[in-house]
């Protein structure tokens, strides 16, 4: 399939790529109606790219059945209003089955989570992603790269055999490394998504990214859209004004090795009455002492 066939998918990646939360009910199950309401809020707020089963959605804490449910709810709610990029991962058969399930439901892309394995070779990284990409040649495939050792040449090698690898979610916290990696792999060949969200978006855009992921968008879609509009127009001063606005919120998420990454987002949503604050282990709800600050930040965004 030619790259022309992936124009819609490429355009969807060059945007705010929202990573929705997975809200839980009082009994601990996925709160389906709340999930739908949160998705509609994103869509109504102008978001047109959704990633179910991303890290902000607590991918690794969901059961296989819950991951399928989250995919189904998201694709159903999105309809024609958004492009859906489904997170897949774990062992190769599980990742392939998830990708095929996404395809059957009408998703247009899959994001392949960084392989969770203590021993990742660069050639093995290519093999893992090739197995997924070859199983769903009709779908756009987006590797989620958190491995600082991986070289751009390896990504180019993967795409040589799998032309449906069209974009990259790059999440190594090093703007200089990103700039080099993107140029080694092919700056124009892939859509580069800043995978560390709004805090890194300005520096990564300056090096060639055209989209960024966001968990904050669950709370304040307009704030994320303000940032991408500024970045698209090359107005870095305006982008950094937004950066200053979200700085404290994102610092709370990033503290202690990102221990409260999802916790802070859900706490903000809980403060707005939009979902319960519960997260699953190994995450943990925010202690009482931290809740007021998060609520004040969310309230300050005039949502």
TrEMBL record:
InterPro entries in the record: Aldolase_TIM (IPR013785), DapA-like (IPR002220)
Protein family per UniProt: Belongs to the DapA family.
Keywords: Lyase
Lyase in keyword set: yes
Organism: Streptomyces iakyrus
Keyword Membrane: no
The protein's name: Dihydrodipicolinate synthase family protein
A UniProt-annotated Pfam family: DHDPS
């Amino acid at each position: 399939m030619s790259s022309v066939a992936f124009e819609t998918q490429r355009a969807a990646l060059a945007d705010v790529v929202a990573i929705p939360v997975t809200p839980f009910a009082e009994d601990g199950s996925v709160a389906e109606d709340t999930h739908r309401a949160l998705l509609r809020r994103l869509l109504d707020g102008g978001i047109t790219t959704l990633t179910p089963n991303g890290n902000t959605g607590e991918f690794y804490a969901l059961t296989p059945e819950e991951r399928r449910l989250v995919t189904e709810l998201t694709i159903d709610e999105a309809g024609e209003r958004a492009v859906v990029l489904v997170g897949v991962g774990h062992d190769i058969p599980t990742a392939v089955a998830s990708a095929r399930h996404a395809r059957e439901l009408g998703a247009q892309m899959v994001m392949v989570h960084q392989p969770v394995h203590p021993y990742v070779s660069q050639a093995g990284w290519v093999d893992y992603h090739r197995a997924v990409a070859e199983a769903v040649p009709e779908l756009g495939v987006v590797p989620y790269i958190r491995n600082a050792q991986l070289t751009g040449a390896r990504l180019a090698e993967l795409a040589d055999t799998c032309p449906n690898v069209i974009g990259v979610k790059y999440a190594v916290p090093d703007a200089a490394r990103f700039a080099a990696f993107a140029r080694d792999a092919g700056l124009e060949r892939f859509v580069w998504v800043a995978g560390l969200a709004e805090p890194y978006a300005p520096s990564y855009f300056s090096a060639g990214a055209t989209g960024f992921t966001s968990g904050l968008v669950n709370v304040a879609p307009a704030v994320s859209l303000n940032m991408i509009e500024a970045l698209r127009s090359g107005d870095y001063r305006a982008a950094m004004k937004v950066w200053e606005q979200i700085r404290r919120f994102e610092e709370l998420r990033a503290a202690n090795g990102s221990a409260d990454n999802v916790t802070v987002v859900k706490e903000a949503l809980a403060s707005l009455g939009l979902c319960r604050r519960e997260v699953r282990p190994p995450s943990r709800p925010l202690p009482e002492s931290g809740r007021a600050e998060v609520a004040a930040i969310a309230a300050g965004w005039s949502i």
